[in-house]
């Protein structure tokens, strides 16, 4: 029920309460790399919304034993973020199946050291871009004037919370679970530190 309520609240915010203007920040130019004059924190949040789906693919697909297949929701999250993942968590739960969905080669890739290091590396590199010099005031102004920045900020916080929840839910016996609290990279670090343990299976 909590996931459903959050999902409905996000939709209501995006439709009725988010700023109606662009604040000079458009999705198209950001996607195409036109970042001139855009605050580094805005860029880091925007880019991390493209990394979070990789995190959820890595967390959900190898543990995909629930009512609905996880991969469509994770893939759609590349475009709409938590708006696609919340229904999965809200309605997809049921007692685990005996077998996981998906081919074994995909599970091996998503659990491989190379994949985990790749996702962790791009997460950390994206975070480091913030140190080019961000302005909390500029971000606050963009949040108040830009529909894109406003909605993607809410989306980012929900994705962060979902990633922590998914880590604790699907890896209940993993070591260093507290690392999941680190935004974006945290769940991947948990998987890295537990690669050789059956606690992540």
TrEMBL record:
Membrane-traversing stretches: 41-61, 73-91, 114-134, 146-168, 174-193
State what protein this is by name.
DUF2834 domain-containing protein
Indicate whether Oxidoreductase appears among the record's keywords: no
Would the keyword Membrane be found if you checked this record's keyword annotation?
yes
Alphabetized UniProt keyword annotations? Membrane, Transmembrane, Transmembrane helix
This chain's source organism reads Planococcus rifietoensis
Which PANTHER family is this protein grouped with?
A: PTHR36009, TRANSMEMBRANE PROTEIN (PTHR36009:SF3)
């Amino acid at each position: 029920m909590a996931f459903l309520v959050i999902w409905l609240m996000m939709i209501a915010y995006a439709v009725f309460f988010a700023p109606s203007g662009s604040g000079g920040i458009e999705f198209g130019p950001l996607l195409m790399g036109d970042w001139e004059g855009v605050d580094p924190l805005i860029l880091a949040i925007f880019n991390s919304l493209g990394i979070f789906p990789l995190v959820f693919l890595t967390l959900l697909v190898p543990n995909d034993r629930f009512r609905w297949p996880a991969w469509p929701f994770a893939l759609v999250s590349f475009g709409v973020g938590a708006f696609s993942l919340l229904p999965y968590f809200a309605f997809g739960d049921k007692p685990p199946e005996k077998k996981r969905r998906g081919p074994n080669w995909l599970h091996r890739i998503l659990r491989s050291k190379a994949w985990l290091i790749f996702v962790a590396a791009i997460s950390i590199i994206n975070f480091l871009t913030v140190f080019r010099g961000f302005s909390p005031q500029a971000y606050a102004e963009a949040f108040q004037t830009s529909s894109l920045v406003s909605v993607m900020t809410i989306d980012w916080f929900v994705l962060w919370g979902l990633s922590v929840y998914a880590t604790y839910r699907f890896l209940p016996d993993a070591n260093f679970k507290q690392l999941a609290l680190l935004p974006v990279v945290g769940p991947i670090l948990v998987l890295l530190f537990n690669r050789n343990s059956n606690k992540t299976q």
